[in-house]
Specification:
The chain is 40% helix and 20% strand. By secondary structure, the protein is of the alpha/beta class. It binds 6-O-phosphono-beta-D-fructofuranose.
Length: 348
């Protein structure tokens, strides 16, 4: 029998550790099972347009510490059109793929789930620096982002203390505040604002005023980009650009500036904002993310070897397990009160 050919794609935002997954899957697939691999370029766009590159041991050598994805990525959504799923399945045949590994977050894996329902041989690997994918304790890339933000908070503390300023730090987190909460706790933030909670400007300002009345002369405020602040006009997201991507997401950015201006106006304390943006997603993965991504890559190829399709590899406790992709998608994993209440102890 001819060896199986496996396609691998990376979809959604890039994230440290993607290359580690690709390397691990290819390495185990070739060495243990004699598989062949095709790297699908630019996520689902590559499946719609048959864009692929060879993936052999040489191509995956040396990529472990490399950020981003050697395959490229996109936010293309094949399900935007009625026949998109059929087209992807047709192109799997055209590219002679026996199975496909889709590495991505809720959007990418929702497509994988639909393809599985249509009979395609697909497995999923969970990825998002936001860490908000359901049914896995952690996604790779998150630990790297948290370390980058924690270091930034430590550095920003210097100016906050020296100049007696309020320093607002805007971090990623479209729907959930995992990065803000973890990095905020690790960096000793005096306030952490996350999309899961509701705030008024009065709450924020009063907490800072109280802290300064206690004798503190600086504050660090960490704000997730997806936070909504209540006002008389209601609640709205702050967006940096009009329009939506193919999965219906607006382009966030700017809430840190809004919060910063209001704090300065209402407290009289000199305030500055730093937007960390794509710094959080760039560069080399931490050791934790390299190990997690490697374990995910190996587990994904083992699922294919068992013919266990429609599953996503997942970290539960210290174990890598397989769960139906359908259970992971459609509902995000949010920061719970158990964690946020710990962060809250240090507010004000
Ligand atoms: O989905 C991960 C994420 O990093 C979000 O935190 C952020 O809102 C978004 O991607 C940014 O996407 P882009 O790089 O396409 O602007």
């Amino acid at each position: 029998m001819a060896p199986k050919t496996i396609g691998i794609l990376t979809g959604g935002g890039d994230c440290p550790g993607l290359n580690a997954v690709i390397r691990a899957a290819v390495r185990k697939g070739i060495m243990a099972y004699d598989y062949r691999f095709k790297g699908i370029q630019k996520g689902w766009k590559g499946m719609m347009e048959c864009l692929w590159q060879p993936l052999d041991l040489d191509e995956v050598s040396g990529i472990l510490p490399k950020g981003g994805t050697i395959l490229g990525t996109s936010r293309t959504n094949p399900l935007k059109t009625a026949d998109g799923a059929d087209q992807v399945i047709e192109n799997m045949k055209r590219m002679k793929l026996d199975a496909l590994i889709a590495i991505g977050g809720d959007d990418t894996l929702s497509v994988a789930n639909r393809l599985h329902q249509e009979g395609a041989a697909v497995v999923g690997v969970p990825k998002t620096i936001d860490n908000d994918l359901n049914m896995t304790d952690y996604t790779f890339g998150f630990d790297t982002a948290v370390n980058i933000v924690t270091e930034a908070i430590d550095r920003i503390h210097t100016t906050a203390e020296s100049h007696n300023r309020v320093m607002v730090i805007e971090v990623m987190g479209r729907h959930s505040g995992w990065i803000a909460t973890h990095a905020g706790i690790a960096g000793g933030a005096d306030m952490i604002l996350i999309p899961e909670k509701h705030y008024t400007m009065d709450d924020i300002v009063n907490s800072i005023k109280e802290r300064h009345q206690r004798g503190k002369d600086f504050s660090i405020v960490v704000v997730a980009e997806g936070v909504m602040i209540s006002s008389e006009k209601g609640e709205d997201l702050v967006v940096s650009k009009a329009g939506k991507d193919e999965f219906g997401h607006v382009k966030l950015g700017g809430v840190g500036q809004v919060v910063s201006e209001e704090i300065e106006k209402r407290t009289g304390f000199e305030t500055r904002v730093t937007v960390l943006g794509h710094l959080q997603r760039g560069g080399t993965p931490t050791a934790f993310d390299r190990v997690l991504a490697t374990r995910f890559g190996v587990a994904a190829i083992d699922l294919i070897h068992k013919g266990d399709y429609g599953k996503m590899v997942s970290l539960q406790g210290t174990q890598i397990v397989a769960i139906p992709i359908s259970e992971a998608v459609g509902q995000l994993k949010m920061v719970g009160d158990d964690l946020y209440d710990i962060a809250r102890i240090f507010f004000g």
